[in-house]
Specification:
alpha/beta, Aminopeptidase, six-stranded mixed β-sheet, two-stranded antiparallel ribbon, 5 helices, 8 strands, PGPEP1_Glu_AS, Peptidase_C15-like_sf, EC 3.4.19.3, protease, pyroglutamyl-peptidase activity
Length: 214
């Protein structure tokens, strides 16, 4: 059995739900064959989220960590390629913190690449009939903060661990006027199952174009 740790976030910015936690919860209740899935909800708070992530990794002792967050406005599931060492918050987190131009880890590398086969993961989601893409930026809010913290933990303490970050579109109940793309929780969960499957079975990523010009 492959031990998988999934993390999602609590709601933030006035929303009543967070699609990341909705989807993660569904996967934990019905995990892919051959996996043992633990789901943990992280606070949408700088610093606190990393403490909670480190505690969850220590307790679950996973082989694979997939952190999941919300990227409202994106039309599909996006698998993140790179985490950068900066917190630059456009809005306050749930504790009212708003760091600007601060490092996630003082003295850490400028960036880390995900230790997942990101292109194979995207291809697996598309094969499941769900829109997906490689993302070149996880932003500079708490999602990137957690992604970088996970990558730094892997690089400095748990080199055998593999991990990465996935962003989900809004849940349908968050889009009252239909002006933004949305993805039902069940489809988002299916996407995460596809990503887990690809991550477990693929060691050498696909060599296909998934770049961006802007």
């Amino acid at each position: 059995m492959t031990r998988v740790l999934l993390t999602g976030f609590e709601p933030f910015a006035g929303s009543a739900v967070n699609p990341s936690w909705q989807a993660v919860s569904l996967v934990a209740a019905d995990p892919p064959p051959g996996t043992e899935v633990t789901a943990v909800q992280l606070a949408c708070v700088f610093g606190t989220a990393l403490d909670e992530l480190a505690a969850a990794v220590a307790e679950a002792d996973p082989d694979l960590v997939l952190c999941v967050g919300q990227a409202g406005g994106r039309p599909g599931v996006t698998v993140e390629r790179v985490a950068i060492n900066v917190d630059d918050a456009r809005i306050p987190d749930n504790a009212g913190r708003r760091p600007i131009d601060e490092p996630v880890v003082e003295g850490g590398p400028a960036a880390y690449f995900a230790s997942l086969p990101v292109k194979a993961c995207v291809a697996a989601v598309r094969e499941a009939g769900i829109p997906a893409a490689v993302s070149q930026t996880a932003g500079t809010f708490v999602c990137n903060h957690v992604f970088y913290g996970l990558a730094h933990l892997i690089a400095t303490e748990r080199p055998a661990l593999r991990g990465g970050f996935v962003h989900l579109p809004y849940a349908p109940e968050q889009v009252v006027d239909g002006a933004e793309p949305a993805l039902p929780a069940a489809m988002a969960a299916d996407a995460l199952r596809a990503i887990i499957g690809a991550a477990v079975s693929t060691r050498t990523d696909l060599r296909v174009a998934e770049g961006a010009t802007h």
